[in-house]
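Quick illustration, no need to memorize.
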Amino acid sequence: MAREKTKIKKIDKLTARQVTFSKRKRGLIKKAQELSVLCDADVSLIIFSATGKLHDFSSSSMEDTLTRYYGHHSNKVEKPVRPCVALEIENTNWKMLCNEVYDQAHELRQMKGEDLEGLNGEELEQLEKKLEAGLSLVIKTKEEQTWNEINKLQREEAQLIKENKQLKHEMKILDRGKLVTVNSELVNNVSIGSSSIPPLDDDSPYPPSSGVLSEAEVSDRRQPTGAFFCKQSIKY
């Protein structure tokens, strides 16, 4: 039974496409190496991934191979003018940045649990350690922020308690001041009431009074002085 031919088409799933690219790339480079060794051929391979990352292989020198290539096709294709050194450096830096961005993005996807199909046991263990270390830092930072917030609330509470005590102390002082003012007013009123009663002479026969006279005292004061002495002598 003939083997059914697999139809070649673009892989829709991004993760599966990246895994397939990684596997097929290694296989292609391996085939190029084998061809170079078995047939003593000068083989060069240039691959750009979908993200722009460069992958190349050359059995000798890539520059020499390209020079031979352009020399072989000089009658058809003009030999490219060698760009200036600054442009070459800029192009090299750009490629390095592209590779770095790709590697960082790929590592980030792996830390999110994506693109793990091409990793072996050791690589998965290293990824697990990175995740554990990152999680520990996240937990530590969260705990520090929580304790800082608790300390801030405690300081605010202590400040409120202090202000409350100070307010109570000031209210007590105000209450005492009001009480002293009321007592002073009462004393002044009593003094004014006492001063309205005419003072008695030292030779007055009437005893000092608090300002309120009984009926007997009123009657005695209405009598003449001689009658008062008579009454006193009769009592004795």
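The CA atoms of residues 93 and 178 lie 84 Å apart.
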